[in-house]
Every structure is written in C-alpha cells, then in structure tokens.
Amino acid sequence: MRILVTGGAGFIGSHLIDRLMKEQHEVICLDNFYTGTKSNISKWIGNPNFESIRHDITEPIRLEVDRIYHLACPASPVHYQYNPIKTTKVSFLGTSNMLGLAKRIKARFLLASTSEVYGDPDVHPQPEEYHGNVNTIGIRSCYDEGKRIAETLSFDYHRQHGVEIRVARIFNTYGPRMLENDGRVVSNFIAQSLQGKPLTVYGEGSQTRSFCYVSDLVDGLMKLMDGDHTGPINLGNPEEYTILQLAQKIRDKMNPGQEIIFKPLPQDDPKQRKPDITKAKTLLGWDPKISLENGLTETIAEFTQRLKV
Ligand code: NAD
Ligand code: UDP
C-alpha cells in the first residue's frame, strides 16, 4: 500500500514509518521539520519505497495514496505554546487540508488525537464517552481545542462525504527520539539526570499520568487503521504514576544521589490522567506490552547514546 505519514519526521511518526517500511509499504513522509528531524528518517533516504517531502500542512497538497496517518502537529506544551495561533491553524487548516485530500483520493484517514480532549478530567479513568473538561481560553487551549475541532472535522467528513476515518486518542507516550529539550516530563527528567542537574517536579508532583511506550502505541495505531472501527479509541498504558513517583524512578535508575526540586505548576495542568482502554482491548485486541521499567531502560540508553555525541 502507499501510505502518507504527516509529521513523519517527529517522534511517533518516525517510529511508525520504521514499522510501515519494514512491512514493505511505500511511504511518503510529509513534514515541515518544526519539531521533527531529518536524522529520525535518514535511514530510509535512498530507499525506493520511501519519499520525504518538506511541506507545511496548513497549505494544501496533491498526492496519490491509499492511507493517511495524520500526525503533524507540535505535541509538547513548550512547542505548541511557542506560536499558539499557528498550533490552532495546524489542527484546523492542516486537518481540513488532509481530510480534503482523503476525500478526493478516497484514502482511509487516521487522526492522531489526544487525551487532552478530556482536559482536566473530572471522570477517572477516562472512557471515550466522557466529553471532557477543557478551558477554551487557557494557554493549553490552542492544542486541546485544536484537537477537538480536528475530531469534529473528521467525523463531519465521514458523515457528509463518506470518508473512512479512524480517530485515536493518544495518551502520554515516551521512548527513544523524544527531543531532549521539548519540555515533556520523561525527556526532561532523563536529560536532567544525564546532565547532573536537579529533576524539576512541577507543583507537589501529586498529579498523575499514564505512560505508554512508543512501540506499543505504534502497534495500536496500526491496528486501529487496519480494523473496522472509526473510534474515537483511547490508546495508552493504564498504569498510572504520580509525577513525583516518576521522578524518583528515573533518579533511582540513573543517578540515585540527584536532588529533586519543586517548581510552580503550569496553568491548567491536568491533575490526573489514565485511559480506560476497554474499547482498544475488545475492538482492536490491543494491550500495551512494555512496562514503564523496561521502556525507561530503552529510552535512557538511547538518550545516553545521542546526547554524548
Ligand atoms: P512531534 O512534535 O515529535 O511530531 C510532530 C511532527 O509534526 C514533527 O515532525 C513536526 O515537524 C511536524 N509538524 C508540525 N507542524 C507541522 C506543519 N504545519 N506541517 C507539517 N509538519 C508539521 O510529536 P509526537 O509526539 O510525535 O506527536 C505526533 C502526534 O501525536 C501529534 O499529532 C500529537 O498531537 C499526537 N499525540 C502525541 C502524544 C505524545 O505523548 N507524544 C500524545 C497525544 C497525542
Ligand atoms: N512536569 C514536571 N516537570 C517537568 C516537565 C513536566 O513536573 O520537567 C509535569 C507537568 O506539569 C505535567 C506532567 O509532568 O503535570 C506531564 O507533563 P508533559 O508536558 O510531559 O505532558 P502533559 O502535561 O501534556 O500530559
């Protein structure tokens, strides 16, 4: 099959491309390299089944493909808040352009949505039926509301034009190739430990997150794309940790004597987050396999290798 991956030079996109290439698909990576890097896809350059196009998805593009994995969008708060108007445009105009393309060429379209559509949830864990608790005017809104309108657009293209859609609500994902400076918690704690700096916990560290290893997530995305269910379907690892527990875990693995310091909690930071993955289990036969312990070991090894160069 010929498959387009928008945001393919990014963290999740490049792992997805690795899997698709190994399965002998023809893959087109579309990326403007805002947070993606050429090194993430360099091993496929020159392969006749692979093509990389530098393009900003807020502009339309004409291509012929069978499937579209739509991942392009900055995902970490530091990057999506750098130019919040652009973030909203990427989510709305970018998704509109990609759905228009899917409609024209009759391609199946998968949207990488997010647990952020649940905002600061008052239902725990979060099932897909929960409609969320999102601030429309806060500093996270460009991303959260952007993904919500992207979901709305996807379902309206499905109902109005018959586009085959799949919507994944991705929960916090980590692994090799995360940018060391993207401000996300796993990459921050690992980079800080490597640099001998104190680990920065925001607030008291009592807020919770559930961390999914990237290979599990990619597996879930592919099962969703290949299956018969539109979704939305939660994809994440339901093992829940407080941020302080995560800091202690990474410190103990990397640098047991390292100090943990506390910094102010950012505005609208969700207090708890854990996916209900009943649907993914029953409808897709998907279940995350990699424990946080093993996933962190892999991630730390790759960061150590990359950051020493
Ligand atoms: P990432 O920042 O590593 O990847 C995003 C990619 O999109 C980058 O390669 C970037 O250069 C590209 N991009 C950004 N704006 C673009 C534009 N206008 N035109 C073309 N390309 C553009 O992030 P990621 O963690 O790999 O996330 C991928 C997708 O998964 C995103 O849509 C994100 O919202 C979603 N997601 C990720 C997580 C997570 O924990 N990583 C959680 C929920 C949802
Ligand atoms: N966080 C932290 N220290 C850091 C970076 C993040 O305590 O150095 C916290 C952040 O406030 C949030 C959690 O870790 O409560 C997860 O943050 P991240 O940006 O990784 O993801 P998101 O908030 O989007 O779930």
Automatic annotation (TrEMBL):
GO cellular component: cytoplasm
GO molecular function: NAD+ binding; UDP-glucuronate decarboxylase activity
Bilayer disposition of the protein: Single-pass type II membrane protein
Cofactor: NAD(+)
Origin superkingdom: Bacteria
Enzyme Commission number(s): 4.1.1.35
Any single GO BP term: UDP-D-xylose biosynthetic process
InterPro entries, per database record: NAD(P)-bd_dom, NAD(P)-bd_dom_sf, UXS-like
UniProt entry tagged with the keyword Transcription regulation: no
Subcellular compartments: Cytoplasm; Golgi apparatus, Golgi stack membrane
Key words, A-Z: Cytoplasm, Decarboxylase, Golgi apparatus, Lyase, Membrane, NAD, Signal-anchor, Transmembrane, Transmembrane helix
Similarity section: Belongs to the NAD(P)-dependent epimerase/dehydratase family. UDP-glucuronic acid decarboxylase subfamily.
Name by which UniProt lists this protein: UDP-glucuronate decarboxylase
Organism per entry: Chamaesiphon polymorphus CCALA 037
